[in-house]
Amino acid sequence: MSDTCPITGLKNILIAIDGSPCSEKALLESINLAKSCGTKLHIMTVVEVNDEYEALAPQIVEKADKEAKMFLDAAKTCAEREKVSCNIIVHRGEDPAHFIVEEAERLKADMIVMGKHGRKKVLRKLFIGSVTAKVVSHAGCKVMIVPN
To answer: Domain 12-146, CATH 3.40.50.2300 — does that match?
Structure first.
């Protein structure tokens, strides 16, 4: 661990991104933190789908999958350019907060990093998005929220 690490004991950081500008800012912060602390970075996203949605609009789900892969690959490239060890994770389902908390537990993450707001424009007027609020209230580890 580097002498410049602001938080002791970090081994695994999970960053949840959705391709929004706010999540891009959170990604940059998590890369800097992982680099200064010598920790592994796990970059994840959740493609929000359900069975009915997939049956009615498979082309939209396919487009969402492709977009998720694009921004995850770009995020991984950004981390690797900074010499940060990372992997990418994709979940598909209806409750992103559930998958984020579950993945943090599975990875034994010491910290979850998220942007203050995601893609849902209606939520931009709130202090933090509903997914972020759920993660904060259910996570068993530190949660760092990066403002826009």
So the answer is: no
